[in-house]
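Work Package 3 (structural annotation) set out to generate three-dimensional models for the target panel prioritized at the project kickoff. During this period the team completed the workflow that converts sequence records into discrete structure tokens, so that structures can be stored uniformly alongside our sequence database. As a representative example, we reproduce one entry of 305 residues exactly as it appears in the project archive.
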Amino acid sequence: MSSPDSAVGSDARRWRPQSPAPCPPAGHPPLPHAFHGGVVRKILTTLATAAAAALVAVAAHTGAAAQGGEDTARAAERAVPAAAVAIDHTVTFVNSTGRTIWVGSEVNADGSKNLSGLPVLQPGQSATVTIPETSDPGHWRGKFFARMGCSGESGSTFHCDLGDCGTYADHCETAEQPVSLAEFNFDSADGLAPWYNVSYVNAFSVPITITPVDVGPGGGGCGVVGCPENLLPYCPPENLSHWPDGTPKLCTNPNRDAKTSYSDMIATHCPKAYGWSRADQEPGNQVMQQCSTCSGFIVEFHAGA
């Protein structure tokens, strides 16, 4: 991804104070032989009464201490804020291109889970996928793109003229060819995530916009990135390729790590998308956004190639 890579459960037992065992009464020296009968019984009765009273006092003190400890523990528990509940965000794809698209996806090499069952969308259709960000390893970092001009049998002869990434219709098995990208960093351990951006760093094929949905307060920028405008008419001629019928198909970046006439074109007509790899380091750039309080995103593929 163009962006920098960016819940933990615990089974820890809660400590509870335990009531100390009562102390036995202090020992007494042997009684002199002069003490007999009623006197002895009276003394023994007095001692027994005193010992019983002492035990009652000790028990009462112990109970109060234990109750106080439990109340303190409960108060401490109430003072600790509950951890935020991690959720799996959704991404809804909208096809506004005027062509059939096969949604493609690729993940970073950091344990993020590959997605399958990706939709095929006719013009005007939409479909939603759930991001497995709370599953091990606790994040999902990757990108989505529109494959076009696809044909053949999935798993065998399937192939796409634009954005090809292998022989399957519902998932990718190889890296994608250069196309427009919607990039995401979903990370349940990052309080600012998700991060998201539109990247034309490798090429421009179709315009893409990313819009957060169900945005709550205090979530960050949460702005729309990308642009709905078709940039193929502005492509430097030496970087433009065409469909068999002669219509513009793809504008390829000649150098993703340097400013070129291509990156200048992107910056002029779509300043909220990456036009080269270090666009996020330029003063005042608007290419990267984060939104920690949304439930998901809409990725819309607009008319272009």
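The first strand starts at residue 90 and ends at 96.
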